[in-house]
Amino acid sequence: MTHPSTPAPGPQSLGRVMHHNAVPMQRTINSPGHCTLVGAGPGDPELLTVKAVKAIQAATLLLVDDLVSDAVVALAAPGARVIHVGKRGGCRSTPQAFIEKLILMAVREGEHVVRLKGGDPFVFGRGGEEVEHLQAAGIAVTVVNGITAGLAAVTSLGVPLTHRDHARGVIFVTGHAAPHGQDTDWLALAQTARTARLTLVIYMGVRTAEPIQQALLQGLDAHTPVAIVQNASLPEQRHALCRLDQMHATMVEQQLGSPSVIVIGDVLQGLLALRITADAGAGTNRLACA
Fold first, then answer.
1. Distance (Å, rounded) from C-alpha 122 to C-alpha 10?
2. Which end of the chain is more exposed for a tag (fewer CB within 10 A), N or C?
3. DSSP for residue 85
4. Which one is catalytic: 87, 120, 247, 266?
5. What domains appear along the chain, each with residue ranges and CATH number?
6. In contact, 37 and 127? CB cutoff 8 Å
7. 65, 117, 251, 266: which is the annotated catalytic residue?
8. Cα–Cα nearest to 38, from 149, 133, 142
9. Is there a contact between 48 and 71 (Cβ–Cβ < 8 Å)?
C-alpha cells in the first residue's frame, strides 16, 4: 500500500501541499476537523495500541515525525495524505511553529489530522506544547499514548526498569542541552539515583555522552551497568552493555548512534554479568555489540 507522501513544505507552498492528492479521502463538506496526537511507539507496528491504529486509519492527513517507522505509516488509509515533518534530536527539523500552523489550517478545512510521533507524545515529544497551542486556538485535540522507547529498549533485553531488589523507581531525562543555559544537573541526578536506587533512562544523549558520563561518575560507581540500545524494537536494533566508565568509549567503538536510548542502573547487573562471562569464554575483554 502506498500513500501520497511529501516532505514538509515551505510556507509559500502550504496551500498547494495541503490540497494535493489525486485520490483524496471522502469527508463531509464543512465537517468539523479534529487533531489527534498519536504515539507511534518505538517502531514495531505490533506495539501500537488499538486506539492508535484506529486513529491512523481514520486520518485524512498525517504529519509524521522522522522516527516513525514506515511500517506504522503504511497503516494509513490509501487516500490519506502524508507529510513528513522530520523531527529528530540533533538534526535539522521542521520549525515547531510551522507544524502547528499546518495543523491549524488543516483542521479548519475539515481534515482529520493525526500528528504521528515516535514513542509517546508526552515523553520528550513536545506534545504538551502542541496541545497548549491548539487548544488556545480553539482546536479540539485528543492524545493517544504510545510505548516510549526507554521502556521498549530494556524490554527488548529482557530487563525491567524497576525491580524490588535493584530499582525502586525510574527517571526519564533528555541528554539535550536545555535552552537559556539551564542544563541538567547530572551530579544531582546521579546522587539521587544512587541514594534512592533509581534507574536512569537518557533520551537523545548520543552527542553529549562523554560529558554526561564524566558528570555521572561524580555520583555513581564506575562499575554501574549501562546499556545503549539503538533502534529499539526494530529489526535493525543493536545494543551494547558496559560499565559507566566505559560508556562513551563503547558507543564510539561499537558505532552506536542516534536514535539510541541509554539505560543506567543495577537492574542491568545480571545481564552485564552474563555478557562479561560470555566475553571471557570467548577470550576477549571487550563487550561485543549485539
1. 27
2. N
3. -
4. 87
5. 5-147 (3.40.1010.10), 150-281 (3.30.950.10)
6. yes
7. 65
8. 142
9. no
User: Quick one: CA dihedral 46, 47, 51, 56, positive or negative?
Assistant: negative
Cα 260 to Cα 275: distance, rounded to the nearest angstrom: 20
Name the one residue in this structure whose C-alpha cell is 501520497: 4
- In the set 18, 44, 120, 204, the catalytic residue is 204
* Known active-site residue 101: no
DSSP per-residue string spanning 174-232: E-SPPGGG----HHHHHHHHHHHTEEEEEES-STTHHHHHHHHTTTS-TT-EEEEEEST
* For residue 83, pLDDT beyond 50: yes
Question: Which candidate, 72, 73, 52, 49, places its Cα nearest to that of 61?
Answer: 73
Residues 6+ apart with CB under 8 A from 258: 88, 89, 90, 91, 204, 206, 207, 230
Question: Tens digit of pLDDT for each residue in 7-43?
Answer: 555 533 333 333 334 345 555 445 689 999 999 999 9
Q: Give per-residue pLDDT as tens, 87-129.
A: 555 556 678 888 999 999 999 999 999 999 999 999 998 899 9
Chain position carrying cell 502524508: 82
Residue 92 C-alpha cell reads as 535539522
Active site residue 105: no
The CA–CA distances, whole Å, from 251 to 31, 132, 163, 266 equal 51, 37, 26, 20
Query: pTM score, two decimals?
Result: 0.83
Provide CB contacts within 8 A for 169, sequence distance 6+: 162, 196, 197, 198, 199
Look up residue 285 and give its amino acid. Answer: N
Other CB atoms within a 10 A radius of the CB of residue 84 amount to 18
